[in-house]
Amino acid sequence: MMDFLRVCVLLLSLSGCCIATLAVQVRVGDDVTLQCPLMVSSSTSPSTLSWYRKAAGLSPQLLLSFRTTDTSNVTFGSRVCPEKLSVSSDGSLLLRDSKQSDSAIYYCGVSHGQEQKKKLA
Predict the structure, then answer these.
(1) What DSSP letter does each residue of the chain carry, written as one string?
(2) Cα–Cα distance between 115 and 75 in angstroms, integer?
């Protein structure tokens, strides 16, 4: 008997009127790629993309965050194993070696705006 887990991707667009969910069934041990639908419609201006995880009975957890202009500089949330997750330039999240404990709702968020410039003293 094969074990499966269920992963949900939730999209909530604060600038529009859309809420969308996508359920994905994954075999334990497999890798899964989750797409961030917000990146498809995002503008070309610099933005920050963040992925979050919400497991049953727990508070939401920041998984990772990065500037869309620099995917090589990813900031991982506390207690997140960088070997378990990665992100690509299109904003998709790769979850490696799925375990039953990975069952959760995963969601992405995008904030738009210019990078703050550092002032030199």
Answers:
(1) ---EEEEEEEEE-SSSS-EEEEEEEEETT--EEE--HHHHS--SS-EEEEEEEE-TTS--EEEEEEETTEEEEEEEPTT--TTTEEE-TT--EEE-S--GGG-EEEEEEEEE-PPPPPPP-
(2) 15
- Enter the pTM of the model: 0.74
Which has the closest alpha carbon to 105: 41, 47, 40, 57?
57
Give the Cα separation of 78 and 60 in Å (integer): 12
**pLDDT per residue rounded down to tens, the chain (121 residues):** 456 555 555 544 444 445 556 677 788 888 988 888 776 654 556 688 899 998 889 999 999 998 877 778 899 999 899 999 999 888 889 999 988 888 888 888 888 765 444 333 3
CA-atom Rg of the chain in angstroms: 15
Structure tokens at 13: 């667009």
- Quick count: other Cβ atoms within 10 Å of Cβ 76? 15
